[in-house]
Specification:
Blueprint lengths: L1 E7 L6 H10 L3 E3 L19 H17 L4 E4 L5 H8 L3 E8 L12 H9 L8 E2 L1
Amino acid sequence: MATLVLIRGLPGSGKSTLAQKYVKAGYYHNEADMYFMQEDGRYCFDPQQLRDAHDWCQNSTRNLLLAGKNVVVSNTFSRLREMSPYLEMPAENVFVIKCNGNYGNIHGVPEKTVRLMKERWEDYPNEMRI
């Protein structure tokens, strides 16, 4: 069985940067934002495809874990129910990390949206905070 690391935090908190440290250690990295990356490297967010992006992320993560691969997933996960599909996946070890940095969000999420995410934030028991 493999290890699953869930990295959560507001846009610009350092989730993807932290995930890259796990990639260097041999983990596979998934996040819903990857679904919106174009072949030329441009990020093209489409809110109508957000459910598809999260479905893709969950399915990819589940398949990697079933294959015995270690996976790190970095998504906002502002509400606990957003993490629940991952917490039910076949992993021997599951770790949850909350990023608290403020590095500016690279995807242009409007400040009002970030504020709403912050207001609805739900802490996860025993999460590590970075």
